[in-house]
Design a protein that fits this description.
Length: about 190
Amino acid sequence: MKRITFLILAGVVSTPVLSAPETYVIDGTHTYPRFSYSHFGFSTQLSRFDKTSGNIVIDRETKTGSVSVIIDTTSVDTGYALFNEHIQGTDFLDTIKYPTANFTSSKVNFDGDKVSSVDGTLTLKGISKPVTLTVTSFQCMLHPMLNKDACGANATAVVKRTDFNMGKYAPNVGDDVTLTISVEAVKK
């Protein structure tokens, strides 16, 4: 009996600890993707999207994960209702035909214990292109208001709007668009 007990204990001790991926649901009340671009060289225009959803999965042990962000393009907010309609039109977002933009990761990259970048595919206006989001900040901890584990990050990438069939007025209105995603997500 002692030998069987020893073998069982030995098996338990030698079994590698399996990591557990943690899933976080994007908090749409604290996640606002923004975009900025040069307006005829006069100024940098900044706009945002008011409705975002998705998931973030992190496995800290194996340093892997995945990201899925869904942006409601009809929620574009330029600060001016008439311009919102202009941006939603066929020359730009074409929100009647394409009401969402999606970012789906192919790889989450770590620098030590922190996420440093996310490689993936951005689909905008029905066109999919590879994009790397550079993560400028990343923090996971107990959310003080919700009393749940949460993660937050800021990530940026520069894309060309002509790559997504939105080149009207380029190059006078800048072709380079800086995307910034400030995201908060709560553990599922």
